[in-house]
Write a structure and sequence with these properties.
Helix content: 25-40%
CATH superfamily of the domain at 2-43 and 224-298 and 409-458: FAD/NAD(P)-binding domain
Oligomer: single chain
Radius of gyration: 22 Å
Bound molecules: flavin-adenine dinucleotide
Strand content: 15-25%
Length: about 450
């Protein structure tokens, strides 16, 4: 095995690790990045369609106030374009398909019965989120109370109609890909609070909307162009196929052992979700707070399915390509066509419950179920794409699910501070550690910038 030494060794070449490497190199430090996969980007991935092109298989969109990923995108010379959003959205509920406009005051929320209840509940959610210090939800005055219940418990304490209940759960599954009973109310409040920047406080609308929200903008050539170009700039500082197995710290420094290479360094940055970091063997053992946090911060479950068509035919029918459904394996869709619309690509999310049910199903079975969903939502033409592809994040060893790690009741108040607190020579990054836009690419970049400063000061 090769033996290398550097000032800092970074574990993980996702956006967080690569950003930290960029900043440390700029500060004159020597850096080695060890990446388990054969590619950079982690949860940002160009899914091969089988004809030499790709579609967004993981992260896809950015939106207003996501300033740090926007700046990095510009720095890497990657172009962006607006998500296709002209026309009506499809709402499929109780076996009925209806169409709705999204330019009214409800934005992306379908006008179901009970939408007034829903708006009142969302309003109260927004007001509670204003009391949450971004990135430090455990310091909210009512942290104990809010972290003692799931989002499900809280939402049911409002006299919500069936439609409003469905949409409340859809809000959680479409943003976190967990069920609303899986996640603490405090976690959700922090997620809302984090959907902003230093000058514009977070709010629910910015999380869920396409126009003026987190789904507003896409990347020409896919967002993976950003980590690919950043990794290329870092050159042979980034080592692939190097899963880190062990991190040992002594008074002399740290030794990080990966398959095929050992790196000794003054400081270590672990840049990944807490659940994935828990696979690494740490010597001496991590403090209990951190070890236990890593046992309590599971990933959501999610897959993305795409179908390729000669044209984006739904556009000609006055549809955005966006849908919300209460049945079928696909519950949310988007138009993933290239910027010039030269062909049509429809993308469907397969949420936590649906992908879990299909856990052992062969790909053909998932494909048939997904095409059935597309057909119900967008008509028979949607049943016969020329190409299809699927990315099942739950099957990815080095992600363990997606899009983000979540916390059940009690975790943030009792263990949250361990998300970012350095442990000896080991520092933590990854979108889960971010204040603003935790869970998003922007949060990953922010965490990389924060940890580079932290380590720079410590060196
Ligand atoms: C389906 C899906 C849709 C999403 N949609 C969006 C979206 O539209 N917009 C948005 O902003 N965000 C979206 N996200 C979230 C976004 O992808 C993440 O927030 C972000 O990419 C996380 O970056 P990271 O660097 O923190 O972690 P990761 O990308 O997970 O990077 C961690 C890296 O560490 C590597 N690694 C893990 N273990 C080891 C080890 N032991 N040794 C060496 N390397 C290791 C992994 O291979 C990976 O490369 C989505 C995610 C998914 C899955």
């Amino acid at each position: 095995a090769a033996a290398v030494s550097a000032d800092v060794v970074i574990v993980g070449a996702g956006l967080a690790g690569l950003t930290a490497a960029r900043d440390l190199v700029a500060a004159g430090r020597s850096v080695i990045v060890l990446e388990a996969r054969e590619r950079p980007g982690g949860r940002v991935y160009g899914l091969p369609l089988g004809d030499g092109t790709t579609s967004e298989g993981g992260a896809e969109f950015i939106g207003p106030t996501q300033d740090r990923i926007a700046a990095l995108t510009k720095e890497m010379g990657v172009e962006t374009f607006p998500t296709y959003n002209t026309g009506k959205n499809v709402y499929y509920r109780n076996g009925r398909r209806s169409l709705y406009a999204t330019d009214g005051i409800l934005g992306a929320v379908p006008p179901d019965w009970g939408v007034v209840d829903l708006q009142l509940a969302l309003l109260s959610l927004g007001n509670m989120a204003k009391e949450v210090p971004v990135g430090e939800p455990w310091k909210a005055p009512k942290a104990e109370e809010w972290d003692s219940q799931t989002f499900h418990t809280w939402s049911r304490s409002h006299s919500l109609s069936n439609g409003a209940r469905f949409l409340m759960d859809a809000f959680i599954s479409s943003t976190l890909s967990v069920r609303s009973r899986d996640v603490s109310l405090l976690y959700v409040l922090n997620y809302v609070a984090s959907a902003g920047n230093e000058t514009s406080p977070g709010n629910v609308d910015r999380l869920i909307n396409t126009r003026n929200g987190a789904q507003e903008t896409r990347f020409a050539g896919g967002p993976e162009q950003v980590p690919i170009r950043l990794a290329a700039r870092l050159g042979d500082r980034v080592r692939y196929n190097a899963p880190v197995r062990r991190i040992a710290s002594t008074s002399a420094g740290a030794a990080v052992t990966a398959d095929g290479i050992t790196v000794t360094a003054k400081r270590v940055i672990v840049a990944m979700s807490p659940a994935v970091a828990s696979k690494i063997d740490f010597t001496p053992a991590l403090p209990a707070s951190r070890l236990q946090l890593m046992q309590r911060y599971p990933m959501g479950s999610i897959a993305k399915f795409v179908g390729v068509y000669e044209t984006p035919f739904w556009r000609a029918e006055g549809l955005t390509g966006q849908a919300i459904a209460d049945s079928g394996v696909i519950d949310v869709t988007f138009d993933n066509s290239p910027p010039d619309g030269s062909r049509g690509i429809l993308m469907g999310f397969i949420n936590q419950s649906n992908i879990r049910r299909l856990d052992a199903a062969p790909p053909e079975e998932v494909k048939a179920a997904a095409l059935d969903s597309f057909g119900r939502l967008f008509g028979d033409k949607a049943r016969s794409p020329s190409l299809t592809a699927m990315q099942r994040w739950d099957n990815e060893t080095w992600s363990g699910g997606g899009p983000v790690g979540v916390a059940a009741p009690g975790v943030l108040t009792d263990f949250g501070a361990a998300l970012r607190a350095p442990c000896g020579l080991v520092h933590w990054a990854g979108t889960e550690t971010s204040g603003h836009w935790t869970g998003y690419m922007d949060g990953a970049v922010r965490s990389g910038e924060r940890v580079a400063k932290e380590v720079g000061t410590a060196l």
